[in-house]
UniProtKB/TrEMBL annotation:
NADPH binds at residues 14-17, 42, 126, 128, 207. The keyword Metal-binding applies. This is 1-deoxy-D-xylulose 5-phosphate reductoisomerase. It comes from Dinghuibacter silviterrae. Transmembrane segments: none annotated. Mn(2+) binds at residues 152, 154, 223.
Amino acid sequence: MTNQKKRIAIFGSTGSVGTQTLQVIAAHPDLFEVELLTAHSNDELLVEQALQFNPNAVVISDETRYGKVKQALASTDIKVFAGEKSLEEAAAFDSYDLMVAAIVGFAGLKSVMQAIENGKAIALANKETLVVAGDIVMRRALENRVPIIPVDSEHSAIFQCLVGETRNRIEKVILTASGGPFLGKKPNFLVNVKRDHALQHPNWNMGAKISVDSATLMNKGLEMIEARWLFNLAPSQIQAVIHPQSIIHSMVQFEDGSIKAQMGVPDMKVPIQYALSFPHRIPNDFPRLDFKKISTLTFEDPDTKTFRNLALATEALHKGGNLPCIVNAANEIAVWAFLRNRIGFLDMTEVIEKTAEKLPFISQPTMEEYLESDGEARNYAASLIKL
Ligand code: NAD
Ligand code: MG
């Protein structure tokens, strides 16, 4: 790598991906420096991170917490901004090189778009951005020559398999899925599942929303849509397979039938580090895979009759238009309500299905139409739950 440090802006620094990104940066102070940190409501952690990493600026998007952050950083020269609008403005700052997009949900879309319009490289964890408006996001990235480097472990795996293969046609990509905490369970069990149970993922320690999405298999559906846009694939080229050990992070099958897989212990710091250091690989002391300790690697088809969210997301992948955006919005509302014990595990599917049936289909939406579809789907989903 060059002598100059890469200046990193972490959008969503207090989350699971955000905090792990800071761990990677802390281990390589010679390569990376923190330019900007943003958080929604966890002002205490944001302040702690700011004091440790000394960024140029921080943004707390929940405006009511501005005073606390400002006061806590009063003795420093770190600039403090607040509010949703400031997130977009910060994304347009000149002073950083790479955005780590680690905000969860639709809330991450506008800052990513702003970064793309300003020619910033993006390490993308926020898959919902591509689910909502992947065609427009990727088109603008291409037009602005902005690299979108995946952080999601499956997509990082595919990305790594594709290094050196630019001229070779992909036959299909195979996304692996752990199956989540309820693998093998049936509806009579799932009907009684509660929040705390769903938050216990066997292989990964993640934020609440993605943990629920992993339990319902919606996460894999969102990732199929994410893969479509990231790698410019036809929906029929994308397959999901259950692989409970989470050792193979995903695979690419080429025209000659040859398959490449990327493997390792499940640890998000590996794809995060690769996205920061790409195109280089840099050393670390993360745990290594010991093949003698894994007795078997197993694979099976997902049970889409039980985990119907994956079937709904697959339908959205194939139908396209604003349907993935609608499904994503309804899912965000459903997960929100499930996390507050307002609806049951299986009710989430019903909210998404009814919202997808109700909202008008648009085959080639503009960005404004995506934003409108998101808002309308949220309102309709909320009315179903009587929020
Ligand atoms: P998280 O809930 O742990 O953290 C989310 C971050 O976003 C926090 O910093 C929070 O302050 C911020 N945020 C939340 N709502 C916001 C809003 N309305 N406006 C501005 N900021 C807001 O989430 P996570 O698990 O770190 O996931 C982040 C993204 O990365 C998600 O899109 C997820 O799908 C993706 N991802 C996560 C993992 C993982 O291991 N956690 C793996 C792959 C992909
Ligand atoms: Mg993933």
